[in-house]
Amino acid sequence: MSTIIYPSPIFGPVHSRRLGISLGINLMPADGKVCSFDCIYCECGFNADHRPTLPRPTREEVAQKLEETLIKMTADGQLPDVLTFAGNGEPTCHPHFAEIIADTIRLRNQYCTKAKVCVLSNSTMIHRPQVHDALMQVDDNILKLDTVDATYINKVDRPTGQYDVRTIIEHMKDFHGHIIIQTMFLRGKCQGEDVDNTSEQYVAPWLEAVKEIRPQQVMIYTIDRETPTQGLEKASREQLDAIRDRVIAAGIPCTASY
Description:
Blueprint: E1 10-16, E2 20-26, H1 59-76, E3 82-86, H2 97-111, E4 116-121, H3 129-135, E5 140-144, H4 150-157, H5 165-173, E6 180-184, E7 186-190, E8 193-194, H6 200-213, E9 217-221, E10 232-234, H7 237-249, E11 254-257
């Protein structure tokens, strides 16, 4: 079973398939997972298996540790390509997410002006005005949309609270293009049920939603690390390339990570 729990509040730098040299910012506790999804493919494992005992880092702790790390990286001559909000759960759930974004942009401008500020989010909190406004300030606002099929979402992404994909899409449109859609394509079975979302049944309506949102870019990817659910399989290179090409044909830049 996968149990990658990241340090908090800063981890890395790590090499990202999609982002380059990434310095991670983890707004969740260092000893567990707190997420508004409980995805069957999450490298951090299931929520119930990693209940934290520590609190989330404070706004002040995040800024202090980030500045210390950037000072060291400057001295070492190795600056990050991107400052990435990721880690053990959904970053936008932090009660001071907006203020932390402001601090991060200030420190980026001071120490590594060429680095992008990136947020990897499952989109569950984008209805909150302060979260929306903060995400409008970052360079890469990467929001998850694995499918538009509610049954599949409940089976694979497994939201822990109320989630309506149509409402999520409407809020994605509110970014007026300042959004990168991120989608996981996979195959295999979970508890005996098929979880393949590479077929036309799933791809065609997903693509229509992407066209409706009109993001600046789409990132499609597949499983790269161990998953907590056994029986999951990577989507093939050929499948990802075919989906990528359909997005590009719709006039939207798209990358595929295998």
